[in-house]
Specification:
The chain has about 475 residues and is mainly beta. It is built from six helices and 30 strands.
Length: about 475
């Protein structure tokens, strides 16, 4: 079972984790190591595409970011100076919620789960139904809504990071006296990366901000602020509505909800649930029986993201998340070279192709600085990373390593890929949101055909939201 560590995801020693050259001046320990932490790259050169939905575009150095140390991490506030408001709506433009029925109607009139994590630093995962998620407890919540038409209740001095907000279906309901006139909708401007530790006000995030103090009420990862409309917002007209929906046993019973209340991890069932956390750090989890993962396949070549290549290689992977443990296994075929580090090498094959122009010596020295990941898995040429690609959100590539997988060559061009990882609640939420991918790096020309590999990445396999199937 994954542990609930409120200090999880501290940033690590700076290193070029994936696809990038090392900046030797940018190093050092930026935080205490803890289980589930990410490994932080130090320098991004002209490489990663941070545009929305354009996998063919290579972004400029200005957009690629130099990845300075993350000093704010998951910040709850942002300075309004220089922040451009993308959208501004008035109270008169959004729906008013006067009754509990009005609130249920915000999720299509057919309530799924009711999820109330309370205070603290929490993680919440919704399922297939139309869920109401309370993000007004005064803490910091990481949320995967799942499928369906979902509503997140926003309250003052509470920050909600939402991994899979869908502007075509999901919405926010302002409570606790918040009005649309108090709200700024903006695109984040922070260029820092760091996997799941990326700043809350990242350039990848749409922000819902309380203008009275700059509190970030909502950070919508991998979302364009301009896609939000008046249909994504409603206001609570009567504060008693929130109290009634949260606390009235008759409301839960009338909506067929099975109520569980406690601290730590609370697992949902295959029916509609009401899950209630406490004042500490809680994990409201949809339950292992509420989803499955389809097999995923990747093909190198002209469509490879972020770096196109001419390899014929393919990778087939299966994944399973049970009891907080992610198991990945599969095969790769027809690669141009053996997986990076699988031959015990400490240098880049001179015949290898460095797709983004990185210095080969710095590239491999950067990898070698971190001989194992946070769970003790030894360095390999196949990494688990954070960010989506291949679905309707667009293409992103954050090179920060989440875990090392194991490569076992079976011949000069083929082999197996395996990994077993204990994920933190936030990492589980990221996986269920379709926000993890693997990248296979290759290096040594083992078959002597004159073609070494692609140390900057030969094959990317996305576990995107199309591959996560919510079953109930």
């Amino acid at each position: 079972m994954a542990t609930l560590d409120p200090k999880a995801h501290q940033t690590q020693d700076s290193f070029a984790a994936d696809n990038h050259a090392i900046d030797s001046s940018d190093s050092g320990d930026f935080g205490q190591r803890s289980k589930g932490s990410s490994l932080l790259e130090s320098d991004l050169t002209n490489s990663l595409n941070q545009s929305f939905g354009d996998s063919s575009k290579v972004s400029s150095a200005e957009d690629d970011h130099d990845h300075a140390p993350l000093t704010n991490g998951q910040s709850t506030h942002v300075s309004l100076d220089g922040l451009n408001s993308v959208k501004a709506f008035s109270s008169g433009q959004v729906a008013k919620v006067k009754t509990a029925i009005d609130l249920v109607n915000q999720v299509g009139g057919n309530l799924g789960d009711l999820l109330n994590p309370g205070g603290g630093k929490n993680t919440v995962t919704g399922a297939r139904g139309n869920d109401i998620i309370f993000g007004d407890g005064g803490g910091f919540n990481t949320i995967t809504t799942g499928e369906g038409k979902d509503a997140v209740i926003l309250g003052k001095e509470t920050t909600n990071r939402i991994f899979d907000f869908d502007p075509t279906q999901d919405k926010f309901v302002l409570s606790g006296g918040l009005k649309m006139n108090d709200i700024m909708i903006a695109q984040g401007k922070n260029p820092g990366k760091g996997g799941l530790d990326q700043p809350t006000d990242s350039v990848n995030n749409a922000l819902i901000i309380d203008k009275n103090g700059g509190h970030i009420l909502g950070a919508l990862t991998f979302t364009k602020a301009e896609t939000l409309t008046t249909q994504n917002f409603a206001e609570i007209d009567d504060a008693k509505v929130i109290d009634f929906v949260k606390n009235d046993a008759g409301f839960a019973e009338a909506n067929g909800l099975k109520t569980q209340q406690g601290n730590g991890q609370i697992n949902g069932t295959t029916q509609d649930d009401k899950l209630v956390g406490g004042a500490g750090d809680d994990f409201l989890y949809l339950g292992d029986d509420s989803f499955s993962v389809t097999p995923v396949k990747a093909t190198s070549g002209a469509n490879e993201f972020p770096f196109k290549n001419d390899s014929p290689g393919t990778t087939d992977l299966n994944a399973e998340l049970k009891a907080g443990v992610l198991r990945i296994n599969g095969t790769y075929q027809d690669f141009d070279a053996a997986p990076l580090f699988s031959q015990g090498e400490t240098v880049i094959d001179p015949k290898a192709t460095i797709l983004n122009g990185s210095d080969p010596v710095s590239l491999i020295n950067g990898f070698l600085k971190v001989p194992q990941d946070v769970e003790g898995n030894k360095i390999s040429g196949t990494h688990l990373h954070f960010s989506p690609s291949g679905d309707d959100r667009g293409n992103f590539a954050d090179a920060t390593v989440v875990r090392y997988l194991t490569n076992t060559p079976t011949d000069a061009k083929s082999g197996t890929v395996t990994g077993e990882f204990e994920l933190t609640p936030e990492e589980q939420a990221a996986f269920l949101a379709g926000n993890l991918y693997t990248n296979l790096h290759t290096n040594i020309d083992t078959d002597g055909d004159g073609k070494a590999g692609f140390p900057t990445g030969e094959n990317r396999v996305n576990f995107n939201k199309n591959d996560i199937q919510f079953d109930t």
